[in-house]
From TrEMBL:
One of its GO terms (biological process) is negative regulation of cGAS/STING signaling pathway. Its EC number is 3.1.2.22. It catalyses: S-hexadecanoyl-L-cysteinyl-[protein] + H2O = L-cysteinyl-[protein] + hexadecanoate + H(+). One of its GO terms (molecular function) is palmitoyl-(protein) hydrolase activity. This is Lysophospholipase-like protein 1. Residues 11-223 form the Phospholipase/carboxylesterase/thioesterase domain. It comes from Anolis carolinensis (Green anole).
């Protein structure tokens, strides 16, 4: 728990803080790492007048796809594959840790419907678990180059009737060699069929990475979901 708190990096809003974005990095990266990467691609920080952007770092844990070596990952995987079971135990324990981060924002006066959750690759997958299973009252979710496993428990959670769920903004490169484009597409189809309002941006010839146009569109979407308040 302490490991996560100590490694937070926040981009403070330029003006009055009325909304927050929690941006989760991909496997093996860190909060400062993904923040720097975004800055490199955008040629500036992802920053806003009224929105704080929080980049937590996942605590190091043994990671099965790396033969049990320690890595900064949000959860373990049996393998990087669309059709294998999810490692529920590690996903659920991290959902609890990240819930404390959301609770901290709420204690600081930010309403849940003024918080966005999202991330790149594994970070986007984590954000979908966090929002659709535990925090359906957040403003929205974004997932860049991400996927959910074929029989994800997220889908089971969304089968409960009569609930309003956060909108999803999803982007995926067609040339992604690590998280296949088809995995992202299938995830989007499943979520849409379960009543999630989604935007799916297909990025031609993009590998497992972020590009400028994608981040600019994400920035626009964030401002649409979290407009400045008078």
């Amino acid at each position: 728990m302490a490991a996560l708190q100590r490694s937070l990096v926040a981009a403070a809003p330029a003006g009055r803080h009325t909304a927050s974005v929690i941006f989760l990095h991909g496997s093996g990266d860190s909060g400062p790492g993904v923040r720097d990467w975004i800055k490199q691609v955008l040629k500036k920080n992802l920053s806003f007048q009224h929105i704080k952007v929080i980049y937590p770092t996942a605590p190091a844990r043994p990671y099965t796809p790396m033969r049990g070596s320690l890595s900064n990952v949000w959860f373990d995987r049996y393998k990087i594959s669309y059709d294998c079971p999810e490692h529920i135990e590690t996903i659920d324990s991290m959902c609890q840790v990240l819930t404390s981060l959301i609770d901290d924002e709420v204690k600081n006066g930010i309403k849940k419907n003024r918080i966005l959750l999202g991330g790149f690759s594994m970070g986007g997958g984590m954000a979908m678990h966090l929002a659709y299973r535990y925090h359906q009252d957040v403003a929205g979710v974004f997932a860049l180059s991400s996927f959910l496993n074929k029989n994800s428990v997220v889908y089971q959670a969304l089968k409960k009737e009569g609930q309003e769920v956060p909108e999803l903004f999803q982007c995926h490169g067609t040339a992604d060699e690590l998280v296949l484009y088809s995995w992202g597409e299938e995830t989007n189809k499943m979520l849409t069929s379960l009543g999630v309002t989604t935007t799916f941006l297909s990025l031609p010839n993009l590998y497992h990475e972020m590009n400028k146009s994608e981040l600019e569109k994400l920035q626009e979407w964030i401002l649409k979901k979290l407009p400045e308040q008078c």
